[in-house]
């Protein structure tokens, strides 16, 4: 069953991702390749978060989101970059997608403790503002970007397999 992923609004994308979960969850759970990839991806995500926390990035981002007039890099509209596959991946990782915005000028997925998603858009993973860059040594930046690369590469494999299963 193929459902056209060319939805317009984030609300439509969220509805479609829940519909895909309903339609394809059993098939995905029975697919060993997908289950293994999802475990590998979650491990890569948790490694990224561990390094972000260790380097103080989570606190830097939290402070910026709360104290920057006009918003931060987690500003309103970023949620529109997310597609149904990334939202479905979050659902498969056990994340419930928010129904309303916590911060009026923030991304729909920004909550009081940071991003409410596990599977994040590559911009959200890769973007390092001047505050972060000025805080970290070059060795720390290299470790961080290598770790982010692992996370993004894992997601690319997940997305390719999701598309194959959903479209076929």
Describe this structure in a few short sentences.
With 168 residues, the chain is an all-alpha fold. It has helices spanning 10-30, 32-54, 57-67, 84-92, 122-126, 130-135, 138-167; strands spanning 110-111, 114-115.
% residues in beta strands? under 5%
**What coarse outline follows from CA principal-axis ratios?**
globular
Instruction: Please state the structural category.
Output: mainly alpha
Write down the oligomeric state: single chain
Cα radius of gyration in angstroms: 16 Å
* Termini gap: 8 Å
Order of the strands making up the biggest sheet: 1-2
Helical region count? 7
- Please summarize the sheet with the most strands: 2 strands, antiparallel
Protein traits:
single chain, 168 residues, mainly alpha, two-stranded antiparallel ribbon, 7 helices, 62% helix, 2% strand, disordered N terminus
Description:
The chain is an all-alpha fold and 168 residues long. The chain has helices at residues 10-30, 32-54, 57-67, 84-92, 122-126, 130-135, 138-167; strands at residues 110-111, 114-115. A two-stranded antiparallel sheet has the order 1-2. The radius of gyration is 16 Å and the shape is globular. Mean pLDDT is 90; it is low at 1-5.
Topology:
Blueprint: H1 10-30, H2 32-54, H3 57-67, H4 84-92, E1 110-111, E2 114-115, H5 122-126, H6 130-135, H7 138-167
Antiparallel strand pairs: 1-2
Helix pairs in contact: 1-4, 2-7
């Amino acid at each position: 069953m193929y459902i056209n992923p060319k939805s317009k609004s984030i609300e439509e994308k969220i509805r479609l991702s829940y519909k895909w979960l309903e339609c394809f969850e059993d098939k995905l759970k029975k697919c060993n390749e997908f289950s293994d990839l999802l475990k590998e991806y979650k491990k890569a995500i948790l490694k990224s978060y561990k390094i972000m926390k260790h380097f103080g990035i989570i606190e830097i981002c939290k402070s910026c989101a709360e104290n920057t007039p006009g918003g931060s890099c987690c500003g309103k509209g970023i949620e529109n970059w997310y597609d149904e596959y990334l939202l479905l991946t979050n659902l498969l990782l056990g994340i419930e997608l928010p129904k309303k915005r916590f911060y009026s000028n923030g991304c729909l997925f920004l909550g009081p403790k940071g991003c409410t998603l596990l599977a994040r858009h590559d911009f959200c993973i890769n973007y390092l503002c001047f505050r972060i860059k000025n805080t970290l040594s070059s060795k720390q930046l290299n470790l961080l970007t290598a770790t982010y690369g692992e996370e993004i590469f894992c997601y690319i494999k997940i997305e390719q397999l999701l598309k194959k299963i959903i479209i076929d």
